[in-house]
Design a protein that fits this description.
The structure is a single chain. This protein is an alpha+beta fold and 281 residues long. It folds into two domains: 45 residues; 205 residues, Cathepsin B, Chain A (Alpha-Beta Complex), CATH 3.90.70. 35% of the residues lie in helices and 25% in strands. Strands 1, 2, 3, 4, 5, 8, 11, 12 and 13 form a nine-stranded antiparallel beta sheet that branches. A hairpin with a 2-residue loop joins strand 3 and strand 4.
Length: 281
């Protein structure tokens, strides 16, 4: 028994001595090199993380810059509505009838409805304005006053029909595409945010145009236009501007900008995405 205890104590003592034995020079060098390699790998990973973070920060900064780079002339106060409702009504037919299409557009905006029949406002000879609760407010006024009236109505959330002609509009987002007509109606739905109320121009206004003008593919067209300064025309010497006769009809007005980067030629989703995004930064 004593011999077993002696052997056990001897084993424990030797084990302790081995554990506490200092490392040899070669062992120390090996450990040092291993530590240096681990430190280098750690530093490299940290640097990669920093670089990635920096790249993400720069990318985000670039994205923010892109969002914030909005030209003042491209920012509008525009009626807030579902543009698909107007697109569901489509463009005017081969016989023209632009006025009844504009009236249908207006009803789509007010009631948030799609596929409204423009011929609901046609009596076989022309548009019947009162059937859509619309009335003329130009009242033999000069053009500056008429444009101010259009501005005021849109500010109240009301789309207005305006009589135009000649080279009357540019396709929004594709301004090289000019639209022309001898006589025509468009629906004004917005105005340039930086427009001078006391010196308004026709080109300050954004409109929905029932004439096709420019098809983005076989199944879709863009009705969104910006008027030219030469657009306003008169009928028997008077300008024509029609607004809703129902004081309860109006929609919200939002600050928005034309976003040409979202133009969509997709047949499956034929919504011209050149129109606006709400509330730009």
């Amino acid at each position: 028994m004593k011999k077993l205890l002696f052997l056990l104590l001897l084993f424990i003592t030797v084990s302790i001595l081995l554990i506490k034995r200092p490392f040899s020079h070669e062992q120390k060098e090996t450990i040092k090199k291993n530590d240096e390699v681990k430190n280098a790998e750690t530093e490299n990973k940290d640097q990669q993380i920093i670089n990635t973070s920096s790249e993400n920060t720069n990318e985000n900064a670039n994205q923010e810059t892109a969002v914030l780079t909005v030209y003042p002339d491209d920012v509008y106060n525009i009626l807030d509505f579902d543009r698909r409702n107007i697109l569901s009504i489509g463009e005017q037919d081969e016989w023209g009838h632009c006025s009844i299409y504009c009236l249908a557009y207006a009803q789509a905006i007010f009631y948030n409805r799609n596929n409204i029949d423009p011929y609901s406002y046609y009596d076989g000879e022309g548009a019947v304005w009162r059937w859509a609760d619309y009335k003329d407010i130009a009242l033999d006024n000069p053009l500056p006053v008429v444009l101010q009236s259009a501005y005021d109505e849109i500010s109240k959330g009301i789309p207005v029909l305006f009589y135009v002609g000649d080279s009357y509009a540019k396709t929004a987002g594709h301004e090289e595409i000019i639209r022309e007509a001898s006589e025509h109606y468009v629906l004004l739905i917005g105005y340039r945010l930086n427009a001078d109320y006391n010196n308004l121009k026709a080109s300050d206004f954004y409109a929905a145009d029932p004439a096709s003008g420019y098809k983005i593919n076989q199944d879709a067209y863009t009705p969104w236009v910006i008027l030219t300064d030469s657009a306003p025309k008169t009928i028997n010497g008077e300008y024509a501007l029609f607004t809703s006769d129902d004081p309860d009809l109006h929609v919200p007005v939002v600050k928005a900008y034309i976003d040409t980067s979202r133009w969509d030629d997709s047949v499956s989703d034929p919504i011209p995405a050149l129109y606006y995004q709400s509330n730009p930064s």
